[in-house]
Design a protein that fits this description.
alpha/beta; Rossmann fold; UDP-galactose 4-epimerase, domain 1; 40% helix; binds guanosine-5'-diphosphate-alpha-D-mannose
């Protein structure tokens, strides 16, 4: 008999790829969609539309991760074998402006899932994936793995860390099968437009098509370990196929600065960037034409920054047999190519027929 999965945050990048992956494995997939994720012009809509076209085995439910009663009722009705808790406020910079709602969504939302499973007595029949984050490591020096200290630097990181500990506590206290996936940055053409990689990929294609206004960026020197989201959702699934629940880092194992991402992205369209000036006056110039392509906007700096994330995913490699399949250069190329498709056709063929 086919398995049933319930994905909270199905309208997001990871939710869309995960739904596609599970549908391809013959799962019946139920997804929780927040009311405003399903309305125009929010970009989540296009991900959902793409999914809707693809399968009869997909059911979307309007709801909210912060509504404990409704969530419990939904889980009771769906009777999932696997729950993937991906719903979150995921923009780290926004979490500084909305810290209380970040905790409500990212921490209490997770608690609502754990409590629902416990209250419904589903401890033995449901497996839970909790979307933990490398932001939880914060200022801990690289490389980071499952044993590194957690020193978060944002309300987002703090909220995710509390959720991570709640998951571990419920695992030990009540025997819930709940695994934390500690995922380093993972990108794709489905990435929200205010995350730095998508913002850069989009701007590069706009420059290719005649954009004149410089791209404004914040901290160019932050180091991130960027992988491809489609590779990572397979790791989420693998975590729930193990004998025992556990916690795993998923990462590409390579770190690059935002500056390097910018350089490689422009080099993909044949433009070499020459950096001039310092601090807030720094500019990225087209080395050939002298045109200003990048400027710094102080408003895009965060009150506190995670400087260096570099994951060590050797436990996932050994235990899950998981490895990233898409390298940094390939990721940049596929994001730019898809951005070209989006600008020409209005949408890209992001999701394979499932
Ligand atoms: N968003 C954004 N916009 N970031 C910028 C910009 C800009 O204009 N300019 C520089 N940056 C820098 C940020 O300061 C940060 O150091 C880095 O680019 C990456 O920022 P994001 O793409 O916003 O991602 P993130 O690293 O903060 O968080 C992502 O990864 C986490 C896992 O480590 C998110 O997906 C989180 O939800 C996720 O948990």
């Amino acid at each position: 008999m086919s398995k049933t999965a319930f994905i909270t945050g199905i309208a997001g990048q990871d939710g869309a790829y995960l739904a596609q992956f599970l549908l391809g494995k013959g799962y019946k997939v139920h997804g929780l969609v927040r009311w405003d994720s399903a309305s125009e012009p929010y970009e989540g809509r296009s991900r959902i539309n793409a999914l809707r076209l693809n399968s009869q085995n997909l059911t979307l439910h309007m709801g909210d991760i912060t509504d404990a009663n409704a969530l419990t009722a939904l889980i009771k009705k769906i009777k999932p074998n696997e729950i993937y808790n991906l719903a979150a406020l995921s923009q780290v910079h926004v979490s500084f402006q909305t810290p209380a709602s970040t905790l409500d969504i990212n921490t209490n939302g997770t608690l609502n899932i754990l409590e629902a499973v416990r209250i419904l007595g589903l401890e033995k029949s449901v497996r839970i994936y909790q979307a933990s984050s490398s932001e939880m490591f914060g200022s801990t020096p690289p490389p980071q793995n499952e044993h590194s200290s957690m020193m978060p630097c944002s309300p987002y990181g703090v909220a995710k860390l509390a959720a991570y500990h709640l998951a571990r506590t419920y695992r030990e206290a009540y025997g819930l099968f709940v695994s934390n996936g500690i995922l380093f940055n993972h990108e794709s053409p489905l990435r929200g437009e205010d995350f730095v990689t998508r913002k850069i990929a989009r701007a590069v294609v706009e420059f290719e098509q005649g954009r004149t206004e410089p791209l404004k960026l914040g901290n160019l020197d932050a180091m991130r370990d960027w992988g491809f989201a489609e590779d990572f959702v397979k790791g989420m699934w693998l975590m729930l196929q193990q004998k025992m629940a556990d916690d795993f880092v998923l990462s590409s194992g390579e770190a690059h600065s935002v500056r390097t991402f910018v350089e490689r992205a422009f080099s993909y369209i044949g433009v070499e960037i020459d950096w001039q000036g310092e601090g807030e006056s720094e500019q990225g110039i087209d080395a050939q034409s002298g045109r200003v392509l990048i400027t710094i906007d102080a408003q895009l700096f965060r009150p506190l920054e995670v400087n260096y994330l570099l994951g060590d995913a050797s436990k996932a490699a050994k235990t899950l047999g998981w490895a990233p399949e898409t390298d940094f250069e390939t990721l940049i190329g596929l994001m730019i190519n898809e951005e070209r498709n989006i600008s020409q056709n209005g949408s890209g063929p992001w999701l394979k027929a499932g």
